[in-house]
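ARCHIVE CARD
Drawer: 12
Card no.: 0347
Subject: one protein chain, sequence and derived structure
Cross-reference: see card 0346
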Amino acid sequence: MPSPFPRIFCTSLVFASLAGLSACGALNLPLPPSQVPALAPSAWQAPLPHQGGVAQLSQWWQMQGDPVLLALIEAAQIASPSVAQANARIAGARATQAQAQAALLPGLSAQASAARGLTQPGAPSATTLQGALVASWELDVVGANRAVSEAASAQLQSTQAQWHDARVSVAAEVAQLYFDLRTCRQLQTLAARDADSQQETARLSGLSADAGFISAAQAGLARAAAAESRARLSQQTAQCDSDIKALVGLSALPEESLRQQLAAPFGTTSITPPAVARVPADTVAQRPDVFSAERNVLVAAAAVGNAMAQRLPRLSLNGSIGAMRLSSGGMDQDLSTWSFGPLALSLPLYDAGQREASVDAAQASYQSAVRTYQATVRQAVREVEEALVRLQSLQAREKDADLVQQSYAVALAGTQARYQQGLASGLELQEARRAAWASESARLTLQLQSKLAWVALYRALGGGFEPAQP
């Protein structure tokens, strides 16, 4: 039986030639621009920090030197449903990209069958062996499939950026809770020390009142101050427990295990400042939400092209090669077949305006994507500017807070010395203690706000996202 492979080879050459012709001669659809100006300002209006380069952002958490924080961030990112959803979207986008790229190439399927039976009375039994290759292909004459393939690639890049954005959001949320817990523990220690001091003052005041050295009113005031300090300690303890339970919810770690990790006393390490590029456009280009919005403009532009292509002729080509062998009564017959075509042209004539409406809807979606992209850039600039302004304010306030705390600590020490010598009243001592406690609490709170501001700046800068790397 003659081999069908020469015909298969010739037909494949024809398909390959037409593929090259289609790729080179495809019409260019009048698509809207896939890249639009970001309209970012030329310079920052707020002062910049003075450390490092932008590349430090990718290792920013490691630079903080806190292994407990790193472990919590890693656990939270693994357990986060938003990160898992972003992973699922990436898998879906990859599948869509593969389908879009496959539409640019011919499809080929193989068929095979075997049968044996009696086809006519009195005739010998016959064996039929049949095999065929069937090819089909839509020639991308107007470039619609190519535009869809480019859009699928852009959509994949967009979902990868969203995955990074989800991870940065989770990391920032964990860091905020972790730093809040650290400050809460420090305030708890301060409140416990104040409560012990107030309790001792109340005890001594009671003894002095019983001996007639001070009035009962002064002793009552001391007891009230001790009760207030205990209430503050209880409130602070509850706040710390609440932070721990929030970290348990984010990290999915057992509470007993998490409490063991947090049992060690917190250090006083300072935050390593993230660096900010001097050109706003360079900075916002690192943000995954900006990159994703920019990719969405390309996707919307391709959707306009696809809608336009539905109004243009479509060209498709089919072909098949079949090999059939019939054996009956000791005789073999070759019944092979082949076909090339039909080369079919489809031209839309009338659809009551449906395709025109689809083009209008796609163009409206494109304009929306452009506005969303530019608004995302403006929002990114705003968030960075606000973080920089807040940092500048906090750094100036921290110096004053340190001076206030030191001054009230000196005043408290002097008042305690005078109280022990009988030269100051219990009321003066309580007021000095309240002022010292409030100044120390304000200083710790301000330090927490500064750390959270650095985290907000890190998040506003994109968290080390690099568009060139998936």
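Annotation on reverse: The first helix runs from residue 5 to 25. The CA atoms of residues 187 and 441 lie 7 Å apart.
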